[in-house]
């Protein structure tokens, strides 16, 4: 039997919890080491999930016998961590956003290419069952020509309850903000919108939160080569207007449950504010509850719930890692190249540039994948 690939984790914050919960049941890989500068955090996570803890990832790379690493650390550390792993001949999975600048992204991609290692961009939303099924329906023409894709995330506990991710994630004054804003969350949608419809982003406009600044509402408009539009609206420093009856029963655990060690097979729960993506076409529309693991289709025949298969949140992280493991075993290109992460970052930074210039920003021709 082929032995599992040995994985080391760089960064053991909340996203590492989601990855580790998602990896349960995978026989392709074994997490053997994890590093975090908070020694107590590394020790706790190592004991909880059964791997060797390190307080310095460079020591881990030198001492642990690894095949690949998952870079789950703060965004400002992504470049150095990816380059260090590549220099050791280790394959890489890197969480989103790929980097804080296009230059950093280019250097990361070049390092992996020069050292002959695979580099998977961590676009976990592509592996969420309702999102994957929605793409299948869109590509089959079920809702006709796509005209508009949208997501909004508006709520929170007012300005006093706003939590900036901090300068250890995003440099002060640069693009940043909360985990529910344009840079840290919205980049998921900037990646999957063109992937869903098979059409690249050609121009963007918008405005985004600055790291460490007073919170404000954010938005981003995307124009696609097909003629479709994409629209994101975020504000994590106000209050939700959703009513209690507007929630859904979700089978996926929340981030808070995972942090508390309650993310196992414990069934579902009511979510009062479930996130969703809306896709509008000429022949119908889709409502994608990506974390609640539900998909609804509306056409002239009415509304139907579309069955989806696969593991809900946090299972997408397991599917993502399994994808990388398969590409390593089969020695084939990764399913989500690092260039996709660079493309998403370019688009988001373009929205920030449009805020400064007051004009639409055109993007260089690329690929929707």
Write a structural description:
The structure is a single chain. This protein is α/β, with parallel strands linked by helices. The chain folds into 2 domains: 5-125 and 316-337, NAD(P)-binding Rossmann-like Domain (Rossmann fold); 126-311 and 349-355, Dihydrodipicolinate Reductase, domain 2 (2-Layer Sandwich). Helix content is 32%, strand content 24%. The protein has helices spanning 14-22, 39-49, 57-63, 78-87, 102-114, 129-139, 182-197, 255-259, 315-329, 338-357, and strands at residues 5-10, 29-35, 52-54, 68-71, 91-95, 119-122, 146-154, 201-207, 218-224, 229-235, 248-250, 269-271, 277-281, 285-289, 294-299, 302-305, 361-362. The strands form 3 sheets. The chain has a 9-stranded mixed β-sheet with strand order 16-15-14-13-7-10-9-8-17. Helix 1 packs across helix 9 (315-329), helix 5 (102-114) runs antiparallel to helix 10 (338-357) and helix 7 crosses helix 10. The longest helix has 20 residues, at 338-357. The radius of gyration is 20 Å and the shape is globular.
Topology readout:
Blueprint: E1 5-10, H1 14-22, E2 29-35, H2 39-49, E3 52-54, H3 57-63, E4 68-71, H4 78-87, E5 91-95, H5 102-114, E6 119-122, H6 129-139, E7 146-154, H7 182-197, E8 201-207, E9 218-224, E10 229-235, E11 248-250, H8 255-259, E12 269-271, E13 277-281, E14 285-289, E15 294-299, E16 302-305, H9 315-329, H10 338-357, E17 361-362
Parallel strand pairs: 1-2, 1-4, 2-3, 4-5, 5-6, 7-10
Antiparallel strand pairs: 7-13, 8-9, 8-17, 9-10, 11-12, 13-14, 14-15, 15-16
């Amino acid at each position: 039997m082929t032995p599992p690939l040995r994985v080391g984790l760089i960064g053991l914050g909340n996203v590492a919890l989601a990855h580790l919960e998602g990896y349960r049941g995978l026989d392709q890989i074994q997490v053997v080491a994890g590093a975090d500068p908070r020694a107590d955090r590394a020790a706790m996570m190592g004991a909880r999930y059964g791997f060797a803890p390190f307080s310095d990832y460079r020591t881990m790379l030198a001492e642990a016998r690894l095949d690949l690493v998952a870079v789950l650390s703060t965004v400002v550390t992504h470049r150095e961590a990816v380059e260090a792993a590549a220099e050791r001949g280790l394959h890489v999975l890197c969480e989103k956003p790929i980097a804080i600048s296009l230059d950093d992204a280019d250097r990361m991609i070049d390092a992996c290419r020069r050292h002959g290692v695979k580099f998977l961009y961590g676009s976990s939303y592509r592996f969420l069952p309702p999102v994957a099924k929605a793409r299948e329906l869109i590509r089959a023409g079920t809702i006709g020509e796509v005209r508009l894709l949208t997501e909004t995330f508006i709520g929170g506990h007012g300005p006093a309850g706003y939590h900036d991710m901090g300068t250890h994630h995003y440099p002060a004054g640069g693009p940043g903000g909360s985990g529910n804003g344009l840079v840290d969350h919205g980049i998921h949608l900037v990646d999957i919108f063109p992937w869903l419809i098979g059409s690249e982003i050609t121009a963007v406009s918008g405005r985004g939160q600055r790291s460490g600044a007073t919170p404000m509402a954010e938005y981003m408009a995307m124009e696609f080569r097909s003629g479709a539009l994409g629209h994101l609206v975020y504000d994590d420093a106000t209050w939700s207007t959703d009513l209690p009856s507007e929630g859904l029963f979700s089978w996926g655990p929340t981030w808070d449950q995972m942090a508390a060690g309650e993310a196992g097979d414990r069934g579902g729960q009511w979510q009062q504010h479930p996130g969703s993506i809306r896709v509008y076409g000429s022949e119908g529309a889709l409502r994608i509850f990506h974390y609640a693991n539900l998909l609804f289709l509306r056409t002239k025949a009415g509304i139907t719930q579309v069955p989806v298969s696969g593991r809900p949140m946090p299972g997408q992280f397991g599917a993502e890692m399994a994808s990388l493991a398969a590409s390593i075993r089969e020695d084939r290109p990764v399913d989500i190249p690092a260039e996709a992460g660079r493309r998403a970052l370019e688009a988001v930074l373009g929205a920030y540039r449009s805020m400064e210039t007051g004009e639409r920003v055109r993007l260089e021709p690329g690929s929707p994948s």
